[in-house]
């Protein structure tokens, strides 16, 4: 269990410095956790608050002392830097002023010499303008010719497109007709195959009928022949019987 004991004010101040070195600014929860992790001791929040308040005053004095020392170190450096910057700026301003004066002098000289050569420059400019105007006129004429050719080509293109549209329509119609013809041809071929099959069946049936008819005819002829034979036999028997009876009658009369 954590020990309950008073924590001295100096210990709390040292704990504040330790937390600050760890980039954690002191407060009551952090101090309570600090001592709890260190040796398990606890104390009231009032004790922590009073100690933190005293430490903050010490910390402010420490910060002011550090700033004062830093100011003592940096102030001479800043002053020296300021002097050097001021000197450099003055030197640059002098150099720039001299350059501006020289530029102004050269500008005046150029202006004076420019008046002397203005006439020749105007002549050259006029010649250049005339050449450009002639070239512009030539280019305008060529552009107009190209425009007319472009319009003619556009007209021909539209005519070709119209012809292509008609041809495409005709091709589509021909393809449609061809498809219908193919379908009809396929149907005709199917019908023809059915007819061939039917004719084959009829031919087979006809052949069977002919064979059956021939068999029936042969059987009938055979039956008729047998009947004629039987009738001839009976007729012979009847004739023989009559002859026998006649002979008997003749014998009885004698």
Description:
The N and C termini lie far apart (181 Å). The model has no long low-confidence stretch (mean pLDDT 81). Helix 1 packs parallel to helix 3 (45-116). 91% of the residues lie in helices and 0% in strands. It contains four helices and no strands. The protein has 254 residues and is mainly α. The chain has a domain at 9-110.
The coarse overall form would be: elongated
Mean pLDDT: 81
Task: Provide the β-strand percentage band.
Answer: under 5%
Q: What structural class do you assign from the helix and strand content?
A: mainly alpha
Region (Disordered): 234-254
Short summary of the structure?
With 254 residues, this protein is mainly α.
List the topology elements.
Elements: H1 9-21, H2 28-38, H3 45-116, H4 118-253
Helix pairs in contact: 1-2, 1-3
Region (Disordered): 234-254
